[in-house]
Every structure is written in C-alpha cells, then in structure tokens.
Design a protein that fits this description.
mainly alpha; Cytochrome Bc1 Complex, Chain C; 2 domains; transmembrane helix; electron transport; heme; metal-binding; membrane
C-alpha cells in the first residue's frame, strides 16, 4: 500500500518514457469510452435494442468496462483514488441484508486498505480478458442476427462493397483520431486527470 503512489511517481519520473506509457494507458482508456458511448448512441438511434441478445451482450460489455476503469482509477492511490473507492464501494451497503457484509468482504477489512488494492489490481488485470471474450460473443451474435436496418434498405440490393468504401472510411477515421490521441498523449498527458490524484491518499484529509 505504501509503495503504490511512489511506484507511479517512479514510472513518471525515473523510468525511461514511463510518463508516456502511463499517458497512453490513461488517455487510451478515455478514448475507449468516447468510442464506446458513440457506439451505444448509434445503437439507440438504429434501434439495436430490438435484438435482445445482441443488445444485452453489449450492455454487459459496457458494465464490465466501467468496472475495469473504476478499478484502474483506484490503483495510483491518490486522494481521488481513495475517496472514489470508498464512496463507490459504500454504495453496495444500501443493499438489504447483505450490503454491509458485502462491502467489508470487498475491502478485505473495515476500510479501503492494502487487501482492497491487491484485489483491485488483480481484477484490473483479469477483466480485460473477460471483455475480449464478451466482444467475441457480441460479434458472433451480430454475425448470426445481422445488424439493425433503420433505413429499411433491401438486404441484397442495398449493399456496397467493403473495399474500397468502408475500408477507406475506416482508415481515414483511424488516422484522424489516432493523430488526436497521439497529440493528447504527448502534449497534454494529464488533461483528464484530477489534480487531487497527484497527492498521495490520506484518509485523514
């Protein structure tokens, strides 16, 4: 627990290009959710919820991704990390009968402490593999059920070739957003980080 914050400082200042690796990781997570929300809103516009299995698998991916992001936010062990973990996990205490015991079980004690951080680190490493498996399930369901068709185009005559139309569009999109991502990671690495998280966690503050 005592080395969590100092290890992040070491990565930022002592490891060669460590700040860049951390910036790519943190900003990459932010961009991941930008595209995830765009995908969700596109699904709402296209009435993708009319296919329950496909929609539910996507919602499950969203919740697992949110959990992974929350766990990662706690790991640097700054002030916002500590209080974020305390507040969010305490929400479970509202559950009847089992809430309080569940919070103590997650914490591994009577407050957010070393056992909590070890568990969160392990889950933060494991859950991305679960996300990849869920994405494969999501793609299989999409392949079986087909995508939604809000414009009502004929399934055979209303098609265009993937290459060159979608291929060029996707390549240009990746180049455009990739350039913005690299610019943010290099020039504005701390843009989406809370200033309080650069202060080591102290439960008394």
């Amino acid at each position: 627990l005592t080395s969590s914050f100092s290890s992040v400082v070491t990565i930022d200042f002592d490891v060669y290009s460590g700040w860049l690796i951390r910036s790519v990781h943190a900003n990459g997570a932010t961009w991941f959710f930008v595209f995830l929300y765009a995908h969700i809103f596109r699904g709402l516009w296209a009435s993708s919820y009319s296919q329950p299995a496909l929609w539910c698998s996507g919602v499950f991916i969203f919740f697992v991704s949110m959990s992974t992001a929350f766990l990662g936010y706690v790991l640097p062990w700054g002030q916002m990390s500590f209080w974020g973990a305390t507040v969010i996990t305490n929400l479970l205490s509202a559950l009847p009968w089992i809430g309080t015991d569940l919070v103590v079980w997650i914490w591994g004690g009577f407050s957010v402490s070393n056992p909590t951080l070890v568990r969160f680190f392990s889950l933060h490493f494991i859950l991305p593999f679960m996300i990849m498996a869920l994405v494969l399930v999501h793609l299989v369901l999409l392949h079986e059920n087909g995508s939604s068709n809000p414009l009502g185009l004929h399934p055979q005559t209303g098609k265009v070739f993937f290459y060159p139309y979608f291929f060029i569009k996707d390549v240009l999109g990746m180049l455009f957003f990739g350039a913005i991502f690299i610019l943010m990671a290099v020039k504005f690495p701390d843009k989406f980080m809370d200033p309080d998280n650069f202060v080591e966690a102290n439960p008394m503050v």
